[in-house]
Amino acid sequence: MNKSNFGNVKAFALNDNMNVPESALNSLRHDGVICIRQAFSQRWLDVVEKGITQALSEASTDIDIVKRKKDTGSFSVSSGAWMQVQPIRHFIFESHLSNIAWLLLETRQLVLFYDFLLIKQAYSDNAVTPWHQDHSYYPLDGKKAINCWTALDDIPLESALQFSKGSHRAATLHRAVDFENPENDYRHARKELPLPPQDQQESFATILTTAVDAGDMLVWYSYTLHSAPGNRLNRRRAAFSVNWLGDDIVYNAKPSLETYRDPGLVAGRPIICDKFPLVRSA
Ligand SMILES: O=C(O)CCC(=O)C(=O)O
C-alpha cells in the first residue's frame, strides 16, 4: 500500500479539570478529528462493558448482528442503548464526557443525539467500514455535531480508523452508504447526493490515522469523511461512541433511519425531546 499520504491524528491528554486543552479544539477545527489519550480510566470502561453485556443480551432494542461472506467473526452494532441500559446512561450522564463535548462543540446547548456500539469480532476481516460522513445518515441541518468514539480494546494501525484530513470543511454532503453491505444501495440514502469517494489513494490529499489503546477517544465532526478496515486480529475490536449536537442543529425531515427521528419533530426546528435530551445549556 502506498502510505505517502498518511499522517497521524493529533493527540492530546486531559488536563487537571478532566477536559481538553484549547489546542485540541484548534486541531479539531483544522483537521476535523483529534485523539484524546486515556480519556477514560478502566473504571469507566468497566461501566461501558457492563452496558454492552446488557445491550447484547437484548436489553437494547436497536441492534444488528451481521456476518460477512467468508468471515468467521461477526460484527454487531447497537444504537441508542442509553434508553434501555442503565450503565450506558451512567457513562453518558455521569462521566466527564459531556464536559469535553461541551467544550469541543462550541455551543450554548448540548443535546445527546445517540450512542453507538460497534464490535468487530476476531477475524471479521471483511467487516470494512466504508468511507462515509456520519451526517449523511442524519435528518439534520447544521454543522455542530460530533462523534466521541472511545476504544474499548487496543486497536493497532491495521484495524484503525482513517480520516480524510480537513474534509469537514468542504460543504459537500455525501450519500449514505450501507454499513452492513457496502455493495448494496442503502435504503435510506438520499439519491440526489453524490456517493462518497472510496479510492483513498486517489481522492484524499492526506489521510489521518492512529493506533489507539483502550480508553483513548477519537472525536470528529459529522462532516468528516472516515473509514476503517475489517478486523483481521484474533481478538475483538470494539468501540463505543456518543454523538452530540450543538445549538445550530435543526431537523430537516429528510429520509433517515428511525434511530435519528422522532414523531414530534418539526422541520426547521431544534430536535430537543425525550429521545434527544438537552444535557446542558449556557
Ligand atoms: O469503528 C469503526 O470501524 C467505524 C466507526 C464509524 O465509522 C462511525 O461510528 O461512524
Please explain how this structure is put together.
The protein has 282 residues and is α+β, with helices and mostly antiparallel strands. The protein has a single domain, classed as Jelly Rolls, CATH 2.60.120.620. It is built from 5 helices and 16 strands. Strands 2, 3, 4, 5, 6, 9, 12, 14 and 16 form a 9-stranded mixed β-sheet that branches. The longest helix is centred in the first third of the chain and has 18 residues, at 42-59. The N and C termini lie far apart (48 Å). The mean pLDDT is 92. 2-oxoglutaric acid binds at residues 116, 118, 129, 134, 147, 149, 161, 226, 228, 239, 241.
Quickly list its features.
282 residues, Jelly Rolls, alpha+beta, 9-stranded mixed sheet, 5-stranded mixed sheet, binds 2-oxoglutaric acid
Blueprint (SSEs and pairs):
Elements: E1 6-8, E2 11-13, H1 22-31, E3 33-37, H2 42-59, E4 63-66, E5 75-79, H3 86-94, H4 97-105, E6 109-120, E7 129-132, E8 140-141, E9 145-151, E10 162-164, H5 200-203, E11 207-209, E12 217-221, E13 226-228, E14 237-245, E15 250-251, E16 278-281
Parallel strand pairs: 1-11, 2-3
Antiparallel strand pairs: 3-12, 4-5, 5-6, 6-14, 6-16, 7-13, 8-15, 9-12, 9-14, 10-11, 10-13
This protein binds 2-oxoglutaric acid (AKG).
